[in-house]
Design a protein that fits this description.
Helix content of chain A: 25-40%
Radius of gyration of chain B: 17 Å
Shape of chain B: globular
Number of strands of chain B: 7
Number of strands of chain A: 9
Radius of gyration of chain A: 19 Å
Number of helices of chain A: 7
Strand content of chain A: 15-25%
Structural class of chain B: alpha/beta
Strand order of the largest sheet of chain B: 3-2-1-4-5-6-7
Mean pLDDT of chain A: 91
Low-confidence stretches of chain A: none
Structural class of chain A: alpha/beta
Distance between the termini of chain A: 50 Å
Order of helices and strands of chain A: EHEHEHEEEHEHEHHE
Low-confidence stretches of chain B: none
Oligomer: heterodimer
Strand order of the largest sheet of chain A: 3-2-1-4-7-8-9
Largest interface: A-B, 52 and 49 residues
Distance between the termini of chain B: 38 Å
Strand content of chain B: 15-25%
Helix content of chain B: 25-40%
Largest sheet of chain B: 7 strands, parallel
Largest sheet of chain A: 7 strands, parallel
Chain lengths: 280, 250
C-alpha cells in the first residue's frame, strides 16, 4: 500500500449544498486533500466566496448555481464540470432542506403534524432531499462508469436511520437516500464506483458559529457520549477517506458520525440498569 | 496532498496478533503513516515479518511475545511498551481465531478457546491500555471484527458469536469512554485473500461478492489508518466493513 492512496491529487469533486455548514466544511477538506472542487447550491454569491476560499488551498474551484430538483439543470451542471475540469471523480450529495409548517425552509426542523402535511410540502421535501441525490448520481455515474472509477458519498442524517418525532418528510427522504445508496452500490460495484453514506448526528447546521456557543453545546451535548456536538471539520477525514483509493473495498456502507449517540441506551448518564444484580 | 489528520507521526500503536496476515498489514500501514509500533503476539509466534515491515518505513518497533489471555502477562506487555515509548496512542485489537465446526461437535473447551482468544484478549488489552488512555484523556481504539459478526455462516457459530461481541464491545466502550476523549471503532473485513498478492479467481465465493473480487489486506491497513486518525473523534462506536458490497446486498 501507499499512503498516497489517501491523496485526491488530480481528482475532480462535486459537492452539493456547499455554500455553508457541513457542505462547505467537506468541500474544504477535499481541497486540502488535493482535489479540485466544484461547489454547488442555489446562491452564486455565497458559492463564489467558498470557491475563492478553496482556491487558496492551491487547487481549482468553481461555484455553479443550480436548482437540483430540476434534472436538466443537474445534467448541465455535471456537463459543465466535465467540460471545464476534465472529468468528475467524486460526488458528495449533501444538498437538502428541513422544513417548517407550510414548507418554509431553515426552521428548527419541525414539520407540520403529519395529518396536516400538504402534498406540496411532501413533494418539496422528497424532491429537494431525495430526487436531487438521484439526479446528481445518475448524471455523474454516466461519466464515472466510462472511466471505471468513481466515488459517490451521500449525506443523510440520523433522522434517516432512526425515527424522529417532528420530521416525517425529512426522515423518509433521508431514509430513502440510504437505500438508494445501497442499491446503487450494488449496481455499480463492478464499475469501479463505490457508493457510501455518511449520517451526521448533532452538528450545528445553521451557521458555524453555533459550534462554539456554550448553550448550544450543553443542550446538544448532554445526550452524546462524547459530551459535545460535532464540529463540521470532523467530517473531513471520513469524506476524504471515502473519496480516495484508500477505501477501495468499502461500498454500500452507512457510517453514522454522531459522537456515539446512537450507541447509547436511552437513559440519563450514570443510570444503573434496574434489573442488575451484583456479581458476587 | 494528504490530510495531516492521517499522519500519525510521533504516535505509538500497540497491535495484537501482529504475526498474522492482518497484523502484518496493520503494522505496516501504521508505520507508513508515521507511528512507532509495539507488536504483540502469542509465545512462539514469530514477529520477524512485522519487524521487517516496520523498519522498512523507518519506524521503531518493539516486539513482545506473551500470554495474551492472562491479566498479569498483559500488564507486563503493556508496561514493557510504555517503558520503551512512554505513551500508547493507538490500540489495535487484532488477535483472533476462527475455526469451522458444526455447533453440536464443538466441545466446551473449544468454545471457551474462541471466547478467550477473541473476546478475553480484547477485553484485557482494552482494560489495561484503556486505563492508560483515560489518564491521558485521549486515545484511539480500533478493534478488528468481521462481517461474520453481522451474519451467520454454517459451522462458524463461535466466530460469529465472538465477532458480534467485539462489535458490541466497540459500541459499549464508545459510550463509556467518550467523555475521556477516547474513540473506539472497529473494522470488519469480509472475504479477504489468503495472502497479500494471491488472488484465487476460482473461489466459488466470488460470485457472492458484488465487486467480484476478494479484499486485500493492505485495504484493511488503510482502514485502520483512517480509524486511528485524529481530527474526527465524533466518529465513535462504529464498525466499518470492508466487504466489496456484500453486506448491503439483499
Amino acid at each position: 500500500m501507499s499512503l498516497q492512496d489517501f491523496s485526491l491529487d488530480g481528482k475532480v469533486a462535486v459537492v452539493t449544498g456547499a455554500s455553508r455548514g457541513l457542505g462547505k466544511a467537506m468541500s474544504i477538506a477535499l481541497g486540502r486533500a488535493g482535489a479540485d472542487v466544484i461547489v454547488v447550491s442555489r446562491s452564486q454569491e455565497q458559492l463564489d466566496k467558498v470557491a475563492a476560499e478553496i482556491r487558496e488551498l492551491g487547487v481549482r474551484s468553481l461555484g455553479i448555481a443550480a436548482d437540483l430538483t430540476d434534472s436538466k439543470q443537474v445534467d448541465r451542471m455535471i456537463k459543465q464540470t466535465v467540460d471545464e475540469f476534465g472529468g468528475i471523480h467524486i460526488l458528495v450529495n449533501n444538498a437538502g432542506i428541513v422544513q417548517s409548517p407550510g414548507g418554509k425552509t431553515d426552521s428548527d426542523g419541525n414539520e407540520s403534524p403529519a395529518v396536516d402535511i400538504s402534498d406540496e410540502e411532501w413533494h418539496l421535501g422528497m424532491d429537494t432531499n431525495l430526487s436531487s441525490c438521484f439526479y446528481c448520481s445518475r448524471a455523474a455515474a454516466r461519466y464515472m462508469i466510462k472511466q471505471k472509477w468513481g466515488r459517490i458519498i451521500n449525506i443523510t442524517s440520523v433522522a434517516g436511520v432512526r425515527g424522529t418525532r417532528g420530521s416525517p418528510i425529512y426522515s423518509a427522504a433521508k431514509g430513502g437516500m440510504v437505500m438508494l445508496s445501497k442499491a446503487l452500490a450494488q449496481q455499480w460495484a463492478q464499475d469501479g464506483i463505490t457508493v457510501n453514506i455518511i449520517a451526521p448526528g448533532s452538528f450545528p447546521w445553521r451557521d458555524l458559529e453555533d459550534a462554539t456557543n456554550a448553550d448550544f453545546a450543553n443542550l446538544r451535548g448532554s445526550r452524546i457520549p462524547i459530551k459535545r456536538p460535532g464540529d463540521p471539520k470532523e467530517l473531513g477525514p471520513i469524506v476524504v477517506f471515502l473519496s480516495s483509493e484508500a477505501s477501495s473495498y468499502t461500498t454500500g456502507e452507512l457510517i453514522v458520525v454522531d459522537g456515539g449517540a446512537l450507541e447509547a441506551a436511552a437513559a440519563p448518564a450514570g443510570y444503573i440498569f434496574p434489573g442488575i444484580h451484583t456479581i458476587n | 496532498m494528504i490530510l495531516e489528520e492521517f499522519l500519525l507521526n510521533g504516535q505509538t500503536a500497540l497491535v495484537t496478533g501482529a504475526d498474522s496476515l492482518s497484523g502484518n498489514a496493520i503494522v505496516s500501514a501504521l508505520a507508513e503513516a508515521g507511528a512507532n509500533i509495539i507488536a504483540v503476539a502469542n509465545p512462539n509466534s514469530p514477529l520477524d515479518t512485522a519487524r521487517k515491515l516496520v523498519t522498512q518505513h523507518g519506524k521503531k518497533i518493539l516486539t513482545i511475545n506473551g500470554n495474551l489471555q492472562d491479566e498479569e502477562s498483559v500488564k507486563e506487555i503493556v508496561n514493557k511498551g510504555l517503558n520503551q515509548f512512554s505513551n500508547i496512542d493507538i490500540l489495535v485489537n487484532n488477535e483472533q481465531i476462527a475455526f469451522s465446526k458444526p455447533l453440536i461437535e464443538i466441545s466446551p473447551d473449544e468454545w471457551r478457546k474462541a471466547i478467550d482468544i477473541n473476546l478475553l484478549t480484547t477485553f484485557l488489552f482494552s482494560k489495561t491500555v484503556g486505563a492508560h488512555m483515560i489518564k491521558l484523556q485521549k486515545g484511539k481504539v480500533v478493534n478488528i471484527a468481521s462481517g461474520m459478526g453481522d451474519r451467520g455462516l454454517e459451522n462458524s457459530s463461535s466466530y460469529s458469536t465472538t465477532m458480534a461481541g467485539i462489535m458490541q464491545m466497540t459500541s459499549a466502550l464508545s459510550v463509556e469512554w467518550g467523555k475521556y476523549g477516547i474513540k473506539v471503532n472497529a473494522a470488519g473485513p469480509v472475504w479477504f485473500n489468503n495472502g497479500e498478492d494471491i488472488e484465487d479467481l476460482s473461489d466459488p465465493v466470488l460470485r457472492y461478492i458484488p465487486m467480484r473480487r476478494k479484499g486485500n489486506w493492505h485495504e484493511l491497513g488503510r482502514m485502520v489508518i483512517f480509524l486511528a486518525c485524529d481530527g474526527s473523534h465524533f466518529l465513535t462506536g462504529k464498525t466499518l466493513f470492508l466487504d466489496g458490497g456484500v453486506l448491503s446486498h439483499a
